[in-house]
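This part of the workshop introduces the protein records we will be handling. An example says more than a description, so a record of this kind follows:
>
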Amino acid sequence: INSLTTAFKVESEYQGQIYNHTEGYIETLGCGTQQEVDQYAVVELGRNVEKIYVRLDARGSSGDAAMESIQLFAREDPTVASQLPFTSAPGTAWVVAEEEPADHFEFDELQVHGGGGLSFEGEGSRLSVDTVSGDHTGLVSMREGQMFHAILNLTSS
C-alpha cells in the first residue's frame, strides 16, 4: 500500500458483553473521504449500549492512525412510548399530555416539512389526523402499541 490510510472497526459494550458492528476492520483506501465533501461511513448499532469503541488501524508506512471527526446519534428505546430526557433526532417534536394522561390525540391537520419529525407519548396511544401533508421529507414515529389514523394528502405543500 503506497497510500497512508486508517482502517476502523466499531464495537460496543453492554452489560459486560462486547458486540462487533463492522465484522472486522473496514478499509478506507479509495472510499473518497479525502477527496469528496460529505463522504463518510455510517455504522448503525441498533442496540442498547454503555460504551462505544472505535478502533483505528494505521495502513501504510507511517504507522500513525488518524480520524478527522466522529458523530454519534443517540436515540431512545423504540419499544418505550414515553419521552426520555434526551433525543438527538434533528427537528423532532413530541406531543405530550401535560395535564392528565391521554391516550387519544386528535388533530385536524398535520404538516411535516424540511425533514422534521413528530413522536407522541403514551403506551397504547392513538393519533388521529384528518389530513397529513408536507414536502415528503418528514417522519412521524410510532412506537410499539401505538396507532396512527390519517387521511394522507400526497401532494406537496
Observations:
- The CA atoms of residues 30 and 90 lie 31 Å apart.
- The first strand starts at residue 5 and ends at 14.
